[in-house]
Write a structure and sequence with these properties.
The protein is α/β, with parallel strands linked by helices. The protein has 2 domains: 6-121 and 213-320, Metallo-beta-lactamase, Chain A; 335-433, no CATH class. It is built from 11 helices and 18 strands. The strands form 4 sheets. The chain has a 7-stranded mixed sheet. Strands 12-13-14-15-16 form a 5-stranded mixed sheet, with no helix packed on it. A 4-stranded mixed sheet has the order 9-8-7-10, with no helix packed on it. A hairpin with a 5-residue loop joins strand 3 and strand 4 (52-55). Helix 10 (342-350) crosses helix 11 (357-376). The radius of gyration is 22 Å and the shape is globular.
Length: 449
C-alpha cells in the first residue's frame, strides 16, 4: 500500500477525511464535493483472487479524479484492475466519472434496469424536456427559478452554455445541491440575499447539467432480488425506491450491505416528488426502509458519512423523522383556510435555511413528497386552479417573482396547484388512477439461500 502524506491528503481529499481500510480488501475512498455536503464515498471491494469491484463514481469534476486515483494508489490498486463497477443510483454525485472509469477499466457496469433509463433521460444530451417539465412543476407549485442554464461536464470540467449558445467556465454547482465554492464558502452564484431582496429567479443560476455517460452496451441491467457474482462474493440486488425511483442496495452473503443513499448515518436522504416519476415517493421510501430493517446486516456502507452497524435503528429514526415532518406540515396547512401552494408551505417548513435557488427547489420537492403522501392517506386534497395574474399580457417565463420566491404575476390561464386539509366527503386519491404500474408491489423475498 502506498502512504499519502498529510500534506497530500489535505490537497486531494475532503477536509478531515482520507481513504480508510474498513476491513481486509474493503476500502472507503472519500471524494470531494463543492457543496455544504463535503464528500461522497466510493467503495473498493476485493477478494482473495484480487478481483476488485468499484461502487459509484463521484461528481466528475477534476478534483474527483485526482482523489479517486490517489485513493486507489493508497489501496495499492490501479484503475485498470477494476473488474466490475456498480452504480447505486443516477444522481449526479454518484455518476460523474462513470464513463472515464468504465473506459479505463473495461469493467461492466451493474445498475437496476429502470435506473439506467433514468440516467440517460435525466443527464444525457437532449434532456431539455426533463428540464422543461421541472420548470413547469416548480411554477405550478408557486416557485419561479427562471430559465435554466446548461452546464456540461466535459473531460471532468464544467462549462456553461447560455441562451445564446456561448460557453464558458461554470461555477461548481448542480441541480438539487447548494452552489458552493470548493472552499465550502457560499458562492455568490445561486445565493439569495440575506435581507430577502430580489427573487429566487434573480438570486442565481438555475442549471441544467449534461454528463458524459458510458455506452449503453457497457451496462448489465439488474432486477430486484437478482443474485450476482462479483469476484469471489455473491450479492443480492435490492430495490429501495424513495431517494431515487430505482435505487440499488447490494447485500453480500456475509452481511455487508452497500446501502448507497438509502440510509445515511447522520443526515436524512432527500425524498422529493418530480415529474414523470413514481407518484408517492415518501410511501415508497418508508416501505423500502422496512425492507432493509429486516435484513441480516452486520455493516452498512453509505454514500455519505462513515460505515455503520445499527442499520435497523437508523432506519427507524429516519421513519420517525418523516412522521414528525408530515405532522408538522399538516398543521401548517391547517392554518391556511383556503389552502396553500407547495412553495408557500416549503418556506414555512424550512424557513431561514432556504438561501439558494437549489435550496428552494430541494425544499419544494421534499414538501410535495410529503403532501402527496398525506393526500394518498386521505388527509389532504389537491386542487388545480386557473389564475389570471394582475398583468394578463405577461409572457411565459417572464412573470415577476416576489421577494419570498413566490410567483406574483402569472401568464393568463396559468394553472396553480393548491393543497388543503381534507374534509368529510372529499375523495381519497388512488395511486392507480395516476400511474400505470399501480401501487408499490410486494417485495421479492430476500433470502440468500
Amino acid at each position: 500500500m502506498q502512504q499519502v502524506s498529510p500534506e497530500d491528503a489535505r490537497a486531494v481529499f475532503p477536509q478531515g477525511d482520507a481513504p480508510t481500510q474498513i476491513e481486509p480488501r474493503l476500502w472507503r475512498l472519500p471524494l470531494p464535493l463543492p457543496f455544504a455536503l463535503r464528500a461522497v464515498n466510493v467503495y473498493l471491494l476485493g477478494d482473495e483472487a484480487s478481483h476488485w469491484t468499484l461502487v459509484d463514481a463521484g461528481l466528475g469534476l477534476p478534483a474527483d479524479e485526482a482523489a479517486l486515483r490517489a485513493g486507489l494508489a493508497v489501496a495499492g490498486v490501479a484503475l485498470e484492475q477494476i473488474s466490475s463497477f456498480v452504480l447505486t443510483h443516477a444522481h449526479p454525485d454518484h455518476i460523474g466519472m462513470a464513463r472515464m472509469i468504465q473506459a479505463t477499466s473495461g469493467a461492466p457496469i451493474y445498475m437496476l434496469a429502470d435506473e439506467i433509463d433514468i440516467l440517460y433521460t435525466a443527464w444525457g444530451a437532449g434532456n431539455e424536456a426533463v428540464a422543461d417539465r421541472l420548470q413547469a412543476m416548480y411554477l405550478a407549485n408557486g416557485l419561479d427559478t427562471g430559465a435554466p442554464e446548461i452546464m456540461r461536464i466535459q473531460g471532468g470540467a464544467p462549462s456553461a452554455t447560455g441562451a445564446n449558445g456561448a460557453t464558458g467556465p461554470g461555477a461548481n454547482g448542480i441541480i438539487g445541491e447548494a452552489a458552493r465554492t470548493p472552499s465550502g464558502a457560499s458562492s455568490p452564484v445561486g445565493e439569495v440575499p440575506a435581507d430577502g431582496a430580489g427573487s429566487v429567479a434573480r438570486a442565481g443560476r438555475n442549471r441544467r447539467w449534461v454528463f458524459p455517460l458510458p455506452p449503453r452496451e457497457t451496462f448489465r441491467p439488474l432486477t430486484d432480488g437478482q443474485a450476482l457474482r462479483l469476484g469471489g462474493w455473491t450479492y443480492r440486488a435490492i430495490w429501495t425506491p424513495g431517494h431515487s425511483d430505482h435505487h440499488l442496495c447490494l447485500l453480500r452473503a456475509d452481511g455487508l450491505l452497500i446501502v448507497g443513499d438509502h440510509v445515511l448515518p447522520s443526515i436524512t436522504p432527500n425524498i422529493g416528488l418530480y415529474p414523470n416519476a413514481r407518484v408517492n415517493p415518501l410511501r415508497d421510501y418508508l416501505w423500502a426502509l422496512e425492507r432493509v430493517k429486516a435484513l441480516p446486516v452486520r455493516l452498512a456502507l453509505p454514500g455519505h458519512g462513515l460505515p455503520f452497524a445499527a442499520l435497523a435503528e437508523r432506519a427507524e429514526a429516519i421513519r420517525l423523522h418523516h412522521a414528525e415532518r408530515s405532522a408538522t406540515l399538516l398543521a401548517l396547512l391547517a392554518a391556511h383556510s383556503d389552502g396553500a401552494d407547495g412553495a408557500t408551505l416549503a418556506r414555512a417548513l424550512f424557513g431561514a435555511r432556504l438561501r439558494t435557488v437549489e435550496d428552494h427547489r430541494f425544499a419544494l420537492a421534499e414538501t410535495l413528497a410529503h403532501l402527496e403522501y398525506l393526500r394518498y392517506d386521505g388527509k389532504v386534497c389537491r386542487e388545480r386552479r386557473s389564475e389570471l395574474g394582475p398583468d394578463d399580457t405577461s409572457t411565459a417565463g417572464n412573470a415577476d417573482v416576489a421577494t419570498d420566491g413566490s410567483a406574483s404575476k402569472r401568464q393568463a390561464g396559468h394553472e396553480r396547484i393548491i393543497y388543503r386539509v381534507a374534509e368529510a366527503g372529499d375523495p381519497i386519491a388512488d395511486e392507480r388512477d395516476e400511474v400505470s404500474f399501480g401501487a408499490t408491489p410486494t417485495p421479492t423475498p430476500l433470502s440468500l439461500d
